[in-house]
Amino acid sequence: MANYFGTDGIRGEYGKNLNTDLAFSVGNALSQIKNKPRVLVGYDTRLSADALKLALCTGIVQGGGTAIDVGIIPTAGVSYLTKKERCDFGVVLTASHNPPQFNGIKIFDHNGRKLTDEDEEFLEEFFKNTYTCQRCGKYFKKDFLQNEYISHLIKCTEASFENMHICLDASNGASFRVAPRVLKLKKAKVEKLSCKNNGGKINVDCGSLNMSKIAEKVLETGADVGFAFDGDADRVQAVSRSGAVFDGDKLLYILAKYMKKKSTLYANSVVGTSHTNSGIMVALNKDKINLIRTDIGDKYVMEAMEKMGLTLGGEQSGHIIIKTHSQTGDGILTALKICEIIKETGKSLDDLFDANLIPQENLNLCVKDKIKIINNENLNHLISDISNKIAPAGRVLVRASGTEEKIRIMVEYSDTQKAKEYVEEIKDLIEKI
């Protein structure tokens, strides 16, 4: 098991468990496992981005590699450009949806796919070494390559969004420039919220984890739809014309039905996770679409898609992978495809969604030792007991976060009051532990 990598790269609070020494080690390790690699580097708007970028690139160059700095760009942009520019690796410095004081390191292989667990464990073996190549590598600043990613997004749909009114919340993150530009080039009228290069406010009261402001903006302006991204724009949530929030489950459902109609949903199957609402599964099955569940984490969704050759997968959080166009979750791409569906059908999101969701109660608890808690025997007994009580119609999911020091609790059950009581019961025991 990797010591530094979680479910989505390395993540930590800058200056504490994530620092420039670690960033240097990552860059240098890449130059150890591949002779003179070409490494494409991007980042979001966080204040710690410059320090970590310089350290990472120094490690690459000291090891004889070439570092190609493409500037502030969504994570999916790094994935796309890594493959297009024929680089050996892509690295994006971001803590995704986490607060400003956090940052992280995500790594892609030459195909623009996130490293597997085995790849991450192998890479970590080289962190303890420092390699200095007698012939140093090179560092290049190539912000202009962002235009290639923008062109790619525009080509992902032939639809024009003329006469569409769209609200955007970029979370003061990596998509602050790219997302509005793409939609404007598609001729949409765009209202912007939190679309600034402001790393001190990234994900603060905005973005995909804070949907109230964009919901208000959609209602205020009478927009057709609103989209909110997280800090690196690999996830998105939407707001309908009525102000209703559409999470990743709802968007996945709408996309799956549309892609089936277009004969682009391979094997009439879609990949979700253990958190995907069971109501989505029932509704998809009625439309003769199969839902395959994986562990939580978009890289596990992608691995399942790869194994079965599937074209669509996603998470409730808003990570959606449309594999015909991307090798990773891309919030802007998802937004474009949802706009395409609205434009083509003439329907609002409210009209497009007809599944009956089963109520879910979710709670995130900050803890000091998530592994100790998740392995506690009394907790596992309680989870098993509650699961038996609500089976077969209900489900319990208690897991350690892969990106934060948190335990995440979910109870899915038709009796909302009972679900709340069970969540509180689990919470009380965790607090005692």
Structure, described:
By secondary structure, the chain is α/β, with parallel strands linked by helices. Helix content is 38%, strand content 21%. The protein has helices at residues 20-33, 49-62, 75-84, 117-124, 146-155, 178-185, 212-221, 248-261, 278-286, 298-308, 331-345, 349-352, 370-374, 377-390, 416-432, and strands at residues 5-6, 9-13, 38-43, 66-72, 89-93, 102-108, 138-141, 165-169, 189-193, 225-229, 236-239, 245-246, 269-273, 290-294, 312-314, 320-322, 360-366, 395-400, 406-412. The protein has a seven-stranded mixed β-sheet with strand order 1-2-6-5-3-4-7, with helices on both faces. The protein has a five-stranded mixed β-sheet with strand order 9-8-10-11-12, with helices on both faces. A hairpin with a 5-residue loop joins strand 18 (395-400) and strand 19. The longest helix has 17 residues, at 416-432. The model has no long low-confidence stretch (mean pLDDT 96).
Name of the CATH homologous superfamily of the largest domain: Alpha-D-Glucose-1,6-Bisphosphate, subunit A, domain 3
Q: Give the helix proportion (percent range).
A: 25-40%
Q: What do we call the CATH topology of the largest domain?
A: Alpha-D-Glucose-1,6-Bisphosphate, Chain A, domain 3
Distance linking N and C termini: 25 Å
User: What's the rounded overall pLDDT mean?
Assistant: 96
In total, the number of domains comes to 3
Q: Which range does the strand content fall in?
A: 15-25%
Q: Strand order across the biggest sheet?
A: 1-2-6-5-3-4-7
Choose one word for the global shape. Answer: globular
CATH architecture of the largest domain: 3-Layer(aba) Sandwich
Give the biggest sheet: 7 strands, mixed
Annotation field: number of helices: 15
- Would you count the extended β strands for me? 19
- Which structural class do the helices and strands define? alpha/beta
Output the CATH class name of the largest domain: Alpha Beta
- What is the CA-atom radius of gyration, in angstroms? 21 Å
Low-confidence stretches: none
